[in-house]
Amino acid sequence: MAGADEAVSADEAGMPNYIDELTGLAEPKQDMMFSTSTTLLTRPDPKMHPMGQAIGVFLLFICLLGFLNGVDYASPNSGLVQPDDFVYRLSLTAPDETATFRGVVYSDENKPLENATVYISWDDGGFWNSSEVLTDKNGYYTFERLDPGLARVDIIVERDGFRDVFSNRVLLSPPALIEPIGFTTIDFVVPSQEVFDAQPCSNGAEECEIRYVDYTPEQKENPLMDSGAKTIYISIGFGFMGLALIATGFTVWAMKNGSILVLRTAAGLSFFTVGHYYTACCFGIVAFVLTFAVPKRYIPMNEPFL
Questions:
Q1: Smallest Cα–Cα separation from 114: which of 158, 64, 48, 69?
Q2: Would 266 disulfide with which of 18, 193, 250, 275, CB 3.0-4.6 Å?
Q3: pTM of the complete model
Q4: pLDDT classification of 6: cutoffs 50, 70, 90
């Protein structure tokens, strides 16, 4: 029989075990032991990996190219690609008979010319097609169902026993976006009779009934085109510049806060700013793909945030 001072367990004394009742676990019978672990608690590093920083610098270079591309578009009289080149390339893939050509013919005194013949001709796969109309009392003319692209326009005016022919090279706009028809509006001002008098006769004679003023040779590089198409081209340039600036902001933001997702967004935006700079397009794709290869870094929890 245990002495009065000897410790007696709850089971031996017949008393209820409250640990069992509250937790459902049996009271441990052996001595408690403690052990240590080498596990280290970590958290994501707020600083971007050096590889991400390098991609960010690469993206800044691409954004610069994108901005220069926008400046090129916004400068219609210079640059790698000019508005007429841009519209001409679009016309090569446009469906036939999707161009409408219209405008007004004026005299040198800025008065509408009635019954002037507007004759248009274009190369259709090695064959020359042509069409002609007469201007109305307001000098207005219109053609429909023409092929987009380059064409020659001759304005023929009969006056004082002469037939004066005023020739120009014209670029007919193709359909844009969701429009099924491309519209080209060009007004012509026919030179004065004195200008035609000064032109030599085509047959070498001193006097001729048909006189020519031909601007097509000097319009070989820059044909006449719709002013609206040129405005759209310039607007595209400002759009490229805006996207380049936005992509630059995202890149700087990503490099400061270490966000790979923001860096990837900047890479995607930069791709859409480089236009006809095809090498820069490749750079944009490479930068976007490389953002998926940036490794994640972790630091111990006991290190303070910077």
A1: 158
A2: 250
A3: 0.67
A4: low
Cα–Cα distance, 223 to 203 (Å, whole number)? 27
- Among 106, 123, 126, residue whose Cα is nearest residue 188: 106
Whether residue 164 contacts residue 156, with contact meaning beta carbons closer than 8 Å, is answered with: yes
Q: Mind giving me the DSSP string for 280-298?
A: HHHHHHHHHHHGGGPPP-E
The torsion region of residue 14 among left (phi > 0), alpha (psi -120 to 50) and beta comes to: left
Alpha-carbon distance of 31 to 35, in angstroms, equals: 13
How confident is the prediction for the chain on average, in pLDDT?
Answer: 83
CA 191 from centre of chain: 40
pLDDT of residue 19: 52
Cα–chain center distance at 138:
40
Q: In whole angstroms, what is the distance from residue 10 CA to residue 277 CA?
A: 87
pLDDT in tens, 60-113: 999 998 898 888 888 877 777 788 888 888 888 899 899 999 999 999 999 999
The DSSP letter of residue 81 is S
Structure tokens at 81: 């690609």
Query: Phi then psi for 122, rounded to 5 degrees?
Result: -150, 155
Whether the per-residue pLDDT at 117 is higher than 90: the answer is yes
Which segments of 173-226 does DSSP mark as H helices, in order? Answer: 193-197
Strand partners, 221: none
Choose the most confident range, by mean pLDDT, from 3-7, 224-228, 273-277.
224-228
Environment class of 234 (CB within 10 Å of its CB; exposed 0-12, middle 13-18, buried 19+):
middle
Query: Using an 8 Å Cβ cutoff, are 188 and 106 in contact?
Result: yes
> Which residues make beta-bridge pairs with 106?
112, 189
Distance CA 235, CA 245 (A): 16
Can you tell me the mean pLDDT for 43-71?
85
Task: Examine the pLDDT at 1 and tell me if it is beyond 50.
Answer: no
Contact of 172 with 92, CB cutoff 8 Å: no
